[in-house]
C-alpha cells in the first residue's frame, strides 16, 4: 500500500499480528475509533505548527492510554505476570533520540523517551533508573496494576499452558508465533519538512529474563533521519538482528532505493527469510508512505491535508487515498 502526500502528515500503526476473525465488530469499531483519535491528536499539533516530535508524542500517548493496544494500559504480560514497557523516539532533524526499557510504573512511556531525548545526556535508560529519572522529570507514575487488562492476562495464561504442554511432551518450545500484537508507533512529517518516529510496546506475551525487543532500540524498532522515518512491529528479535528500521532508511539514503521498496524488502523479504515476521510503517520527507506487513492485518492509518483520519485493520482493507 503506497501513497505520496503533502506535508504535514502523520502515519501510525497499532501493531501487526491481527488475523481476520480475531476481532468482533465492536472491537474493530473501537480500534478504528482509537486510531482515528490518535491521528487527530497528532495532526492537531502539526496543524498548529508544532514539530514532528510533538505529533508523534501526542498520537502515541492516545494509543498508550487505550487498552486495545499493547502499549501503556493494555500491555501484554511477562512470564512473571508483570507488565514491562519499552519505548523509543527519534528526531530526524537533529538525530537525537530517547529510549527506555523495562518500565513498570510510567503511565506514558513515550513521554519518558521524549524527556530522555530532551533533558538528559543519554539515549537509553532501563528499569528503576529510568523510573527515577521519570520521577525527577515530573512524569506521571502509576501503580503497576494500572496496566492490567483481563484479556492480556488470559493471553498469558494460554501461553503458559502451551509452554507447560510442550514441556510435558518434551517438545521444543513452540515459536512465539502471534505472541506479538498491538505495539504502537507514529511517524510525522511537519510543516518544516522534518521527520520524527516513535514506538511504544509491552513487548511479547510470556517474555522473561528481562527480555527487551526491538521497540526501544534505536535503529531496530525506531529510526528517523532527514529523509526517512520508520516504526516497526513484529517479532522483535528479528528486527534487532536486521537493524530493521535503520536498514530501511540506510537503503533509501545510501543506495537510493525508493522508500516503499526498501521497506518491503526488509519487512517482507529479509525478516521472513530469517524466520521472523511482522510489519512497519515508513514515511519519506517527500511524503511517500509505506505500510508493509506479512500478517493478516496491521492496525494502521494516516492523516494529511484533508484532516480526515484514514484507518484500516486487515490486509484486505483498502486505505482510502485523497
Ligand atoms: N516488536 C515488539 C517486541 O518484540 C512486539 C510487537 O511489535 O508487537 O517487543
Tell me what the CATH architecture is: 4-Layer Sandwich
What would the principal axes of the Cα set say about the shape?
globular
- Residue share in helix: 25-40%
Bound molecules: aspartic acid
> Order of SSEs, N→C?
EEHHEEHEHHEEEEHHHEEEE
Model description:
With 322 residues, the chain is of the alpha+beta class. It has a single domain (2-203, 210-314), classed as Glutamine Phosphoribosylpyrophosphate, subunit 1, domain 1. Helix content is 35%, strand content 23%. The protein has helices at 25-47, 52-65, 109-119, 127-136, 150-168, 236-242, 244-255, 259-274; strands spanning 2-4, 9-16, 85-91, 97-103, 124-126, 184-189, 195-201, 222-224, 228-234, 278-284, 288-290, 297-303, 310-314. The strands form two sheets. The chain has an eight-stranded mixed beta sheet with strand order 5-4-3-7-6-2-12-13. Strand 6 and strand 7 form a beta hairpin. The longest helix has 23 residues, at 25-47. It is globular and about 55 Å long. The model has no long low-confidence stretch (mean pLDDT 94).
What would you say about this model in short?
The chain is α+β, with helices and mostly antiparallel strands and 322 residues long.
Furnish the topology, listing elements before pairings:
Elements lengths: L1 E3 L4 E8 L8 H23 L4 H14 L19 E7 L5 E7 L5 H11 L4 E3 H10 L13 H19 L15 E6 L5 E7 L20 E3 L3 E7 L1 H7 L1 H12 L3 H16 L3 E7 L3 E3 L6 E7 L6 E5 L8
Parallel strand pairs: 4-5
Antiparallel strand pairs: 1-11, 2-6, 2-12, 3-4, 3-7, 6-7, 8-9, 9-10, 10-11, 12-13
Aspartic acid binds next to strand 9.
Amino acid at each position: 500500500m503506497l501513497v505520496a502526500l503533502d506535508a504535514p502528515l502523520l502515519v501510525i500503526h497499532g501493531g501487526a499480528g491481527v488475523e481476520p476473525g480475531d476481532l468482533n465488530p465492536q472491537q474493530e469499531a473501537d480500534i478504528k475509533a482509537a486510531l482515528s483519535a490518535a491521528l487527530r491528536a497528532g495532526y492537531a499539533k502539526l496543524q498548529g505548527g508544532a514539530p514532528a516530535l510533538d505529533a508523534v508524542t501526542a498520537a502515541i500517548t492516545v494509543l498508550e492510554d487505550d487498552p486495545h493496544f499493547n502499549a501503556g494500559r493494555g500491555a501484554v504480560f511477562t512470564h512473571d505476570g508483570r507488565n514491562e514497557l519499552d519505548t523509543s523516539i527519534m528526531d530526524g532533524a537533529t538525530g537525537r533520540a530517547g529510549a527506555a526499557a523495562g518500565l513498570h510504573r510510567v503511565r506514558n512511556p513515550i513521554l519518558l523517551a521524549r524527556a530522555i531525548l530532551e533533558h538528559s545526556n543519554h539515549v537509553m535508560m532501563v528499569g528503576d533508573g529510568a523510573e527515577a529519572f521519570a520521577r525527577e522529570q515530573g512524569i506521571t507514575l502509576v501503580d503497576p496494576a494500572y496496566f492490567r487488562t483481563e484479556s492480556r492476562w488470559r493471553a498469558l495464561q494460554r501461553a503458559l499452558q502451551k509452554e507447560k504442554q510442550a514441556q510435558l511432551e518434551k517438545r521444543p518450545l513452540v515459536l512465539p508465533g502471534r505472541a506479538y500484537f498491538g505495539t504502537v508507533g507514529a511517524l510525522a512529517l511537519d510543516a518544516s519538512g522534518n521527520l520524527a518516529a516513535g514506538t511504544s510496546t509491552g513487548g511479547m506475551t510470556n517474555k522473561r529474563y528481562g527480555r527487551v525487543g526491538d521497540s526501544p532500540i534505536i535503529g531496530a524498532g525506531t529510526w528517523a533521519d532527514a529523509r526517512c522515518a520508520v516504526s516497526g512491529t513484529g517479532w522483535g528479535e528479528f528486527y534487532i538482528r536486521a537493524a530493521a528500521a535503520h536498514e530501511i532508511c540506510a537503503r533509501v539514503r545510501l543506495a537510493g532505493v525508493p522508500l516503499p521498496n526498501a521497506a518491503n524488502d526488509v519487512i517482507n523479504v529479509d525478516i521472513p527469510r530469517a524466520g521472523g515476521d511482522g510489519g512497519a510503517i515508513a514515511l519519506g520527507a517527500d511524503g511517500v508512505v509505506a505500510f508493509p506487513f506479512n500478517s493478516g492485518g496491521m492496525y494502521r492509518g494516516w492523516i494529511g491535508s484533508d484532516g480526515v483520519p484514514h484507518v484500516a485493520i486487515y490486509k484486505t482493507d483498502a486505505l482510502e487515498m485523497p
